């Protein structure tokens, strides 16, 4: 008897893991309006929450990089006080838990939230407090990734803070921003420091820029994971009969089980993939790369982890076993101690999927 494919509502009940989600890309529109009023931020295109949600989505789908970046001007613009950061982080945890996420790593750049006088430490502590509040009693654990910006020169400072706060909720370090012209090797001192300190880090690579970005992130900087990494597909040649041949870099990424933090809807918006059905995730999953499924920016993409999974089910016919495979991949790749990862895989994820498969 053929098994019915998972529906969106069923997927929402599945225990999920999220590794690539930006705090400033997931605010509730109503919260943006409230915080703009409370902080005196007057740059919003509209103060109607529903219209604002639509504006964010349309600006992100416009194909204009300028309009897409403008969306973050508004979210970051209202996240400049301790109270705002606590609220945004708490609501983030609540929203993820409501979507069935049991473990998440949410990233943000502390240096972007100091315009009103907060120190980097005060920013970090406010976000940690918000996640503590929002996670309490909701069956979710949230770790943070401290992000440094590629075009700035504060990566060592942020890396040191990631190490300082790693025992109280900071799971690791990230670097983000425009790839072209700002290679990760510009921040080599920070990555070498993190390796000396036995700290975890991921690098945005292989999204807007190609294979050289991925190669540098892995071979020069030693990244544990690749943020997006979608352009690894450029190192896989598919013959006329559909037989794939991996290049040296793609083979290395697969052989070393380097996790790929894929964000399907976001990749469409940035032009990294033409459609969900043509997204490289289909081939990469078939070739058993360490693929994970993520949201990137839930507000801008109008998405959740469950909705990302549902789109992949529709495009590729994935069943419960496929969704569990993606989820276990993500949990294996999380910046958590081994025992904690194993406990979630064997105690929460596998039993949760088994129940859903049985009910189906």
Automatic annotation (TrEMBL):
GO terms for cellular component: cytosol. GO terms for molecular function: 2'-deoxyadenosine deaminase activity; adenosine deaminase activity; zinc ion binding. Zn(2+) binds at residues 20, 22, 204, 296. Coiled coil: none annotated. Its EC number is 3.5.4.4. GO terms for biological process: adenosine catabolic process; hypoxanthine salvage; inosine biosynthetic process; nucleotide metabolic process; purine ribonucleoside monophosphate biosynthetic process. It catalyses: 2'-deoxyadenosine + H2O + H(+) = 2'-deoxyinosine + NH4(+); adenosine + H2O + H(+) = inosine + NH4(+). Gene3D superfamilies: Metal-dependent hydrolases (3.20.20.140). The active site is at 207 (proton donor). InterPro entries: A_deaminase, A_deaminase_dom, Ado/ade_deaminase, Metal_Hydrolase. It is an enzyme of class 3 (hydrolase). Residues 15-350 form the Adenosine deaminase domain. Pfam families: A_deaminase (PF00962). Transmembrane segments: none annotated. PANTHER family: ADENOSINE DEAMINASE. Catalyzes the hydrolytic deamination of adenosine and 2-deoxyadenosine. Belongs to the metallo-dependent hydrolases superfamily. Adenosine and AMP deaminases family. Adenosine deaminase subfamily. This is Adenosine deaminase. It comes from Planomonospora sphaerica. The lineage of its organism: Bacteria, Bacillati, Actinomycetota, Actinomycetes, Streptosporangiales. The gene is add.
């Amino acid at each position: 008897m053929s098994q019915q494919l998972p529906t969106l509502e069923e997927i929402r009940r599945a225990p999920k893991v999220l590794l690539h989600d930006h705090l400033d890309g997931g605010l509730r529109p109503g919260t943006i309006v409230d915080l703009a009023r409370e902080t005196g931020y007057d740059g919003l295109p509209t103060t109607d929450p529903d219209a604002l949600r639509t504006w964010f989505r349309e600006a992100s789908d416009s194909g204009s990089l300028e309009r897409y970046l403008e969306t973050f001007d508004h979210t970051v613009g209202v996240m400049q006080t301790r109270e705002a950061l606590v609220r945004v982080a708490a609501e983030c945890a609540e929203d993820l838990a409501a979507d069935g996420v049991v473990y998440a790593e949410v990233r943000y750049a502390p240096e972007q939230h100091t315009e009103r006088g907060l120190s980097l430490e005060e920013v970090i502590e406010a976000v940690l407090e918000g996640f503590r509040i929002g996670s309490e009693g909701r069956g979710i654990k949230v770790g943070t990734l401290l992000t440094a910006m590629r075009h700035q020169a504060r990566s060592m400072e942020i890396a040191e803070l990631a190490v300082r706060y790693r025992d109280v909720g900071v799971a690791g370090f990230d670097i983000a921003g425009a790839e072209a012209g700002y290679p990760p090797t510009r921040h080599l001192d920070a990555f070498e420091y993190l390796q000396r300190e036995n700290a975890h880090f991921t690098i945005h690579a292989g999204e807007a820029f190609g294979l050289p970005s991925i190669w540098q992130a892995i071979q020069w900087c030693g990244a544990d994971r690749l943020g997006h990494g979608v352009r690894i597909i450029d190192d896989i040649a598919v013959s006329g009969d559909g037989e794939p041949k991996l290049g040296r870099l793609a083979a290395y990424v697969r052989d070393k089980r380097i996790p790929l933090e894929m964000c399907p809807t976001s990749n469409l918006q940035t032009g990294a993939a033409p459609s969900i059905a043509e997204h490289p995730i289909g081939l990469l999953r078939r070739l058993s790369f360490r693929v994970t499924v993520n949201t990137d920016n839930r507000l801008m993409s109008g998405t959740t982890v469950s909705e990302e999974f549902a789109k992949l089910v529709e495009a590729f016919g994935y069943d419960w076993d496929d969704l569990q495979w993606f989820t276990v991949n993500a949990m294996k790749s999380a910046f958590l101690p081994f025992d904690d990862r194993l406990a979630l895989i064997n105690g929460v994820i596998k039993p949760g999927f088994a129940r859903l498969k049985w009910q189906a």
